Amino acid sequence: MDKNSIIGIFLIFGILVLFTIINKPSEEEIAEVKRKRDSIAMVEREQEKLLQSEKENTIDQTVTSQPDTVDLETVIKQKSDQLGVFGRSAIGEEEFYTVENNLLKITFSNKGGRIYSVELKDYMTYDSLPVVLFDGPETKFGLSFFAQNRSINTDQLFFIPQFGNESVVIDGPEVRKGNEGKIRYNENHPGSSGKVSFRLEVGPGKYLEYIYSMEHNSYMIDMDMNFVGMDQYIASNQSYINFTWSIDVPRQERMSRFGEDRYTNIMYKFYENDVDNLSQTKSDEDNLSTRIKWIGFKQLFFNSSIIAKESFPNAYVKSEKFEEDDKYLANFMTEIAIPYQGKDSESTEMQFYFGPNHYQTLNQYDIDLERLVYLGYAIVRPVNKYLIIPVFNFLRKFISNFGIIILLLTIFIKTILFPFTYKSYISQAKMRALKPEMDEINSKFGNDKAMEKQQATMALYKKAGVNPMGGCLPMLLQFPILVAMFFFFPTSIELRQQSFLWADDLSTYDSIMNLPFSIPFYGDHVSLFCLLMTITTIISTRLNQQATSSQGMPGMKAMMYMMPVMFLFILNNYSSGLSYYYFLANVITIGQTYIIRSFIDEEKIRARLQVNKKKPVKKSKFQKRLEDMAKQRGLQMPKK
Predict the structure, then answer these.
(1) Which of 62, 72, 282, 419 is most buried, most CB within 10 Å of its CB?
(2) Among 205, 219, 196, which Cα is nearest to 355's?
């Protein structure tokens, strides 16, 4: 060995000695380590009584118990090597704590300090079990960041609860039916509130803390994330910390491709902008690169939503649909950017909504959460928002039977439309009165002179004072209402599990017979309300065909009879409340038709039209202006 090698060895040895002296822990640090070792040892003894021995070798695994042959110091060292100052928090035993008010029962876990499950007290599933929005170890809820050049996931670490009781009950005055979760009602009838917090401690006065706050008669949960002294550990070049929330969505309603399976998806609202969503029919994902106000994990009648106090800078959302799964509908996941400035102390505030998709309840927050209740396309949404829902809720104040409410709602709508229905029938009567003249025109002009026939027909209408489009107005007015109802009834939580006559649940299909086989597009059951709707639609179509002129296209008439049959296949799997409404609307329309017929004398109408034909045709201002322009140019208008 040469001289240079010997000098190099001594220099390295000297550096190691100097480094050891500099990094020697203080007496306070030694005492703190001893205290934590004693605490871990006590937890370890309890774990050995309950769990099988297990040794972890990966970052995402948690050591919950160690065999006698494994030195605890070795385990702590392994975890410290993997997770740095967070290593000791990877050892522990999962424990659960509950917080509940009159509406919710929320279970928290010290593993991740997370919301483990949420139960809605006032609701039951289709098979009479409590409605649990999410539950189980599959739920992910936590932060991920880099600290000391290590990747940290807080959902795998054990937090320390900062409260004494394992169960916290938030009391308050009894809430009257219909006022569940109403802010205005709570202001006049205040109840108590409560807080629970979990800390992930990494050193004296250095911790990550989750504080959850909840009030009586509220579906909202406040959550504050506090970072205290974490700037010493979290990498300073991180502007954001990722918050991951993922749940498996349990099935609450019976399986139906037109029910809960169809309306389960992720929705989100851009900050001070519109609401958008992932696909309802297939797995989907999206990177939301602009600011987000809230993200909702939505089912047909319930939702779990995360809401920013101001906004989230960006987010990633993903839905994985489960096909034909009788237990779960989908897996929903979001990764949200949480701003981080690297200060000694900073906080992030957010809220969670766990509750029903009830329009008034969601609308009161004034952040477009009510859009989680799907009311149809933009053109029909105002009909539901400003007409159907207000009338429906007004009737609910006085009537508890939803079958009667739908009946009165139908009568109200048909009464509003009756003046237009009457005018439509008069227009149709005028068209029938001109049938002899129309037959004459058809015989005079064959099929090869379609243009001349059309001109002669329009001239006849104008001379007799008949508007051929007069019968279309009621249909145009009724169409948005019909479509609005198509979306209102299947998504109205008020109808959920409400029975009427033979229908057990007006929010889904009724069945009077289960078939031993499935018919394509129809299903494996027979809906009586749907059958009644189809029969009355055919009768109404027949009466309408009799009331109109016979000059219509034969193909169109056949199509009019095919429509009820098509709707029989479509609506057999839809809400029985919707079929019941269409049935009632058809019955009322048939009754109105017979009543109008009894008051209209078509002979008098024909006589009046003959008088109109003898009167000079009054030119419109537009037609007169065209003639004046033609005269100025020296042109002569063609004679009629």
Answers:
(1) 62
(2) 219
Instruction: Classify residue 52 by its DSSP letter.
Output: -
Mean pLDDT: which of 338-342, 375-379, 453-457, 627-631 is highest? 338-342
In sequence order, what are the beta bridge partners of 107? 98, 117
Question: Is residue 8 in a domain?
Answer: no
Query: DSSP letter string over 305-330?
Result: EEEEEEEES-EEEEEEEPTT-SSEEE
360 and 436 assigned to the same domain: no
- Per residue in 344-386, pLDDT (tens digit) is 899 999 999 999 999 999 999 999 999 999 888 888 888 998 8
Separation between Cα atoms, residue 137 and residue 567, nearest integer Å: 44
Beta bridge partners, 295, equal 268, 306
* Domain span including residue 422: 389-614
Q: Which amino acid is at 633?
A: R
Q: Are 230 and 200 in contact (CB under 8 A)?
A: no
Question: 350: how many CB neighbours lie within 10 A of its CB?
Answer: 19
pLDDT band at 278 (very low <50, low <70, confident <90, very high): very high
Distance between CA atoms of residues 561 and 543, nearest Å? 12
Whether residue 489 sits in one domain with residue 439: yes
Q: How far apart are CA 86 and CA 154, in angstroms?
A: 9
Structural domain contains residue 636: no
Q: Is 636 left (phi over 0), alpha (psi -120 to 50) or beta?
A: beta
Angle at 195 between CA 39 and CA 203, to 5 degrees: 35
**Is residue 626 a part of any domain in this protein?**
no
CB 35 within 8 A of CB 204: no
What is the rounded distance in angstroms from the CA atom of residue 142 to the CA atom of residue 552?
66
pLDDT tens column, 473-523 = 666 777 888 888 888 988 899 999 889 999 988 988 888 888 888 888 788
497 sits in the region (left: phi over 0; alpha: psi -120 to 50; else beta) called: left
- Beta strand pairing call for 96-100 and 167-169: parallel
